[in-house]
Design brief:
Rossmann fold, 2 domains, six-stranded mixed sheet, globular, binds adenosine-5'-triphosphate, ATP-binding, AAA+_ATPase, ATP binding, P-loop_NTPase
Length: 268
């Protein structure tokens, strides 16, 4: 099976090591892994390492391929990345941007169906319910509309791995739900999804597994209900929170305030 696995990954920026030996259990096609943790923990850096945007020490495998050794165009044919900061000054409308992404995906050898590129772009836009903004310039869209348009571009070419960095930060509740539905169906078609999320209840709903990153290290990993415990919230986020599971199986997190550790540190 073409699983994604990270073993002892070290990465960072000029003179600044950020990831200190990140290992993750295999993420298999169809699975959604949510990566969470406090600000500056290194979550985006993990996605950039997988996407090949940073030099990496360690192993990142996609099935039999060591993806750190693939040429950029080979990697681009397999991995799609939706960054946290979306590009500005694109100068294209939503339809044109999806069409451009399809053309690039075709050049990288990503699977493109028999339909014309225009028909494929139109189908993707319709599937994401973006018809109303299809002809709007991306630079004029709201933050949430930009995120949905960026998702349409990221889905082009049926990537084996979809990397999403805080993709719902600007979405209202209905669009978050819509986004989750789309990601679930993309995963169900055999894509590996790794998504960075701050909102823990959403991460629990959206993902099959959760990994918690703190100071460049994975400190917990497993099923959402196993991982998101009161102790982890106190140790990693420094908050005291009541964690309950409601009758529908949804995780509820009620933040009560700073954890005792934080209060103790402030007093000392
Ligand atoms: N381009 C860069 N050059 C230098 N340092 C960087 C760069 N990008 C990120 N960093 C540093 O790497 C560390 C981890 O950043 P990263 O963006 O991976 O964290 P994160 O967990 O995604 O944070 P957040 O939740 O705030 O988005 C931070 O200390 C940050 O300052």
């Amino acid at each position: 099976m073409t699983a994604l696995s990270l073993r002892d990954v070290h990465a960072g920026y000029a003179g600044k090591p950020v990831l200190h030996g990140v290992s993750l259990p295999d993420v298999t096609p169809g699975q959604i892994l949510a990566l969470t943790g406090p600000n500056a923990a290194g979550k985006s850096t993990v996605l950039k390492a997988i996407g090949g945007f940073l030099p990496v020490r360690g192993t990142i495998m996609l099935g039999p391929d060591d993806i750190t050794r693939l040429k950029p165009f080979q990697r681009a044919g397999k991995i799609s990345y939706m960054p946290q900061a979306l590009p500005r000054g694109v100068g294209l409308n939503v339809f044109e941007s999806v069409l451009a992404a399809l053309r690039i995906a075709g050049k990288h050898g990503a699977t493109i169906s028999g339909l014309s590129l225009e028909r494929q772009a139109a189908a993707l836009i319709e599937n994401l319910d973006l018809g109303d903004i299809a002809l709007s310039n991306i630079d004029t869209l709201s933050g949430g509309q930009k995120q949905m348009a960026a998702l349409a571009q990221a889905l082009v070419g049926n990537p084996s791995v979809l990397l999403l960095d805080e993709p719902t930060s600007a979405l209202d509740l209905r669009h978050q739900d819509e986004f989750m539905r789309v990601i679930r169906s993309v995963a169900a078609s055999g894509t590996i999804v790794v998504v960075v999320l701050h909102e823990l209840a959403l991460a629990a709903r959206m993902s099959d597994r959760i990994a918690v990153l703190s100071k460049g290290r994975i400190v917990a990993e497993g099923l959402p209900v196993e991982v998101l415990s009161r102790d982890i919230l106190a140790d990693v986020w420094g908050i005291d929170a009541e964690v309950t599971v409601n009758a529908r199986g949804s995780l509820l997190i009620d933040v009560l305030g700073p954890s005792r550790n934080v209060i103790k540190k402030e007093i000392e």
